[in-house]
Amino acid sequence: MEKIVDVGATRAGSVPGEVGSKEPAVVLAGVSKSYPGVKALTDVNFDCRPGEVHALVGENGSGKSTLIKIASGVLTHDTGEVTIGGEPLAGGSVKRARKLGLMTAYQDTSLVEELTVAENIALSFNAIGEPRPADLDRLLARYDLPFKPTDLVGALGPGARQLLEVARAMSHQPRVLMLDEPTAALDMQYAAHLEELIRQSRDEGVAIVYVSHRLEEVRRLADRLTVLRDGVIQGTWSGRSWEVDEIVEVMVGAPTDLEFPTRTPSKAQGNRLEVRDLAGHGYGPVSISVRPGEIVGVAGAEGNGQRALLRGLIGEKRTSGEILVDGKPVGRGGPSAALDAGISFQSGDRAVESVYSELSVMENATAQLGPESGPFGLALPARLREAFDKVSKQLGIVAASPYQPISGLSGGNQQKAVLARPALRPPKVLIVDEPTQGVDARARMDIYRVLSSAAEEGMAVLVNSSDSAELAGLCDRVYVMSRGKVVQEIASPMTESAIVRGFVSAADVDQSHVDQVPSDAGFLSRLIARATSNFPIVVLLLLTAIVAGYAGSQSPFFWTWPNLANMLIIALPLAFVALGQQFTMLSRGFDLSIGSTISLTVVLVSMTLPDLSPASLAATIPLLLLVAAAIGGFNAVLIGWLKINAVVATIATMGIVQGIAIILRPAPGGVIAPDLGTAVSLGVAFLPAPFIGLIVLTIALELWLFRSRTGLAVRAAGFNPESSRRIGRQVGVIRAVGLLVCALGAVVGGVLLASQTGIGSNAVGATYSLPAFAAVFLGGAVMTGGRGSFVGALLGAVFLSLLDNVTPLLNIPNATEQVIYGIILLVAVSGYTVAQRVRARK
Fold this sequence. Notes:
The chain is α/β, with parallel strands linked by helices. It has four domains: 3-252, Rossmann fold; 273-342 and 427-512, P-loop containing nucleotide triphosphate hydrolases (Rossmann fold, 3-Layer(aba) Sandwich), CATH 3.40.50.300; 359-425, no CATH class; 532-841, ABC transporter involved in vitamin B12 uptake, BtuC. 50% of the residues lie in helices and 15% in strands. The strands form five sheets. A seven-stranded mixed sheet has the order 1-11-10-4-9-8-7, sandwiched between helices. Strand 15 (318-325) and strand 16 form a beta hairpin. Helix 5 (158-171) runs parallel beside helix 6 (188-203) and helix 22 (614-641) runs antiparallel to helix 23 (646-664). The two termini are 53 Å apart.
């Protein structure tokens, strides 16, 4: 193979100087990066020129991802220089890298699954201050993407999400396009389509950095290939002047056997796993079987039911059919029942379904160890360590320590840790989804040996893979699926070409058996989606009408203007606090110190606002704004900068603020301007003027949240902070602003409460913390961020005030009121959860 020293060498077969004569679009010069105890990159020199594909290959953990993240601005290098289009990145951020023209498509994507395709595209353009493409249908058609702008990204299959990730990056018309394992989640059809898109971008002059473990794919696409091992560049090769086994040897630093392990064909006659007419969401009816000692594959174009079938085998979304293990039916108790019956399932989606990222590699590997962990359900560290040491040596898991978080391991070692579970607790049936997705060549062979050993030990092994060569080299038989059904069974002789032909014939079956979809299906889906997204508001309006109607029928005083006006005045403090809490919860934050902030506000108002004279207002207003900024800013520093847990941080702030309030006003006292209460009660009919202003503010916030760029950014930061960071959004700033707004809402609520109390009290706000959370939960908010609405929060506050208003009128004891309050909250939140699941399915 022809190794070149000059990384600017020309593409093999191209006109001399066509690529080499161009200035590099991205250059990393002498770049190094270290972590505690680890040298991730050492003096790396790498570039990519316009109109070429420069492949970057290496084992998992070799430093490829670190290099990409440094070039993308996600990480800051220790030494060296990064330039994009001749401009230095120089400690710049993701946003600067993207504005200079460098776009990155990540293997695990930077998409927000809870948003639509259109919103994800808009989010990417908004992050760097560019308008999104006007005609999204035309954009999707340009890249021949198989979905609509209105589709939720979470409803797309892994392959479709990966295509969207790449197409979104390409739609920016970048100077540099960095692709991190772009075909890892794609089947053959999608992978071929993506390769054509890459060639088009290259021909348009884009510099493409291409990271992949699939070396045959790299051979077809790459103009140059650079090998990275242990953070050090091992060399660069031009064109296709290299052999796969030689490059693998350079990658691992030693000769490597790339052959599939040989196995003795199974001679068992009976079936260990037998599936009869199994059906569920997205597949069926399906009938398959696997004998002891046999490896059976599942193949098909992405989205044809393979993944759904595998999950159906462990009871997920299974509607009918029968599963037998050694002739015994498997119950419908879900994954736990399947595990008890001897079925072990390992998902290919490591990040979401396989690993516990915060736990250690040892805890992940021994997660299904069972009784051997210890007596009486205990997990004894000594037993876990003994089991882990044994399986770690057997599978070749490379970790600095058994107690190292699994998130710090390479993809290949994470996958080995996942496969350690069935190795430690041998099942009768082993089901593996995409066993080698995103792992390097050596780890791939280690995983193949694990699966072959499992079959040799008598397990029935069922494998779903989008890699036809993998299926051909590993499996005894392969079932090809289309439209959720098995359309062909391929037996010995097992060849890659036979599987490819099976894919083609499956596509033919797919086209000839397409069910007619009602013309109004899209309209109904959109109608259901709208209804479920507004479900909390609809429920709150309905509950409010029921309670108000019943109260009015039992008490003639309820519908009088004085009572209604009083109820709305009492609702004002809680409503403003709820709006502030909703704002910060959208970005996945919350504030437990709001009650003490309200109390401190009332105390300060009692000391500085004896009347509404200009002098008193001039002293009070700046002071209260300063208090809001100080409390919100203090929380932001604790949570964002010092990385203290939000619960601990805001409880600490609550104690500090409450202590200050007690020091300033040990006992109730002081005078609050009587005219303040009068001013708050003025209005139109029974509507106080501040409540009218509150309605206007709420509508403005709602429009901002769902119609503006920054509102979309806030929701995205709550749904998926990491994806937001990858496109250049400063999630820390968004959360800090949320905490500041929450503190401001508490201060405004405190002023309105002060107008009702008339004197200062250091404990008057203590009762508002929990109702504020209840109001936003009733309005559809969740602790994980991104959801909820300001209209819902306002309606939640009004509804809680309504309950407080009607219970004395109806002579309901306080204890009964609290029970009703809790039941309504539980029922409402449970209903919202069900509605979200319905929306996701639709």
